[in-house]
Amino acid sequence: MTDSQVVSGSETSHSGEVAESFQDPGIPAHVPRLGDSDPKAAKRSERIVVALFALSVIGTIGTLVAFFTLPDDTSIAGVRTQNVTLGLGLAFALLGIGLGAIHWAKTLMSDHEVVEDRHATASSPEVREIAIQHLKDGAKDSGIERRGVLKGAVVSALALFPLALAVPLIGEVGSDWNIGKFRHTIWRRGVRLATDPTGRLIKAADVTIGSAYHVIPYAEDIAEEVRPGTHSWIDEKSKAIVLMVRMDPRELTESEERKDWSHNGIVAYSKVCTHVGCPVALYERQTHHLLCPCHQSTFDMADGAKVVFGPAKRPLPQLPITVDDDGYLVAQSDFHEPVGPSFWERLK
């Protein structure tokens, strides 16, 4: 698109010199493509486009076949075979569509250049005078000029309204900036594990192999000021949520210092993802993998909740558990590290 077909007059450069007027060169002469004059070339381009879209179809079919047929417990160099195959299938599916569309546009669609002159966008003086007069007429019709109280009310409302936004923001300055609270939760030694959201106590004998429980601290075992119904409960619960699963103890890989953190194959980990804090709650029983639905970070519950896929960089913190004299599952202590994503004063 050009501003005009002919540029007349003169222009002033940055140095103050007056440049001579010049002729707009316009657009170059159209150069026909080989396919425009050779039917065989056009047919060849068409076949290439068809092949690229066919590649996309094959990629899509391959993705579906991999999803339904490949086992999800095999890996290549630590990466799940199914994940690799699904990624390659999706790549070819999208690449085929993209390249096919581009090749179609460049070789088969019309490529003739089009020029549209740019016209002045400013309204004429007459139109601007009419618009100003309409505004004056509107002000006169509203009676705001002769109604001082109305004028004062409007001005006052508009002047004071920003305070409704500014005051709460300013009020936050100097508020609680103690980030040390993120290092601890309401889990303590002896706090019993309860189901979320019913709050029912959990006996170790009732937890079967392969089962998963969403867990919170039992309300009667925590301080009254942070129990359900209080102002602080939601904040404290959001840090203390836990996913507990039971598996065959022989399937667990535990470090020496954590061998007593589980009970007969029952392990409990924070549900707060170490990437950006989303709740991880999608447990896959066959692989013991726990998936975060936000960005697909995947943690291996059988091996210290280590990251096996996705953007998370740290394992989920483990809650040390045991059983009390009545057979109920209880916490041995709080988490030994801060839960959730990193923050600026996190030691680890």
From TrEMBL:
Co-factor(s): [2Fe-2S] cluster
Domain of life assignment: Bacteria
Region feature Disordered, mapped onto this chain: 1-38
InterPro entries to which the protein is assigned, alphabetical: QcrA_N, Rieske_2Fe-2S, Rieske_2Fe-2S_sf, Rieske_Fe-S_prot, Rieske_Fe-S_prot_C
Xref: Pfam families: QcrA_N (PF19297), Rieske (PF00355)
One GO cellular component term: plasma membrane
Topology versus the membrane: Multi-pass membrane protein
Residue intervals of the Rieske domain: 261-330
GO MF, one example: 2 iron, 2 sulfur cluster binding
Record keywords: 2Fe-2S, Cell membrane, Disulfide bond, Electron transport, Iron, Iron-sulfur, Membrane, Metal-binding, Oxidoreductase, Respiratory chain, Transmembrane, Transmembrane helix, Transport
Record's subcellular location: Cell membrane
Record's compositionally biased regions (Polar residues): 1-15
Parts of the chain that traverse the membrane: 48-70, 82-102, 149-171
Protein family per UniProt: Belongs to the Rieske iron-sulfur protein family.
Known role: Iron-sulfur subunit of the cytochrome bc1 complex, an essential component of the respiratory electron transport chain required for ATP synthesis. The bc1 complex catalyzes the oxidation of menaquinol and the reduction of cytochrome c in the respiratory chain. The bc1 complex operates through a Q-cycle mechanism that couples electron transfer to generation of the proton gradient that drives ATP synthesis.
Protein name: Cytochrome bc1 complex Rieske iron-sulfur subunit
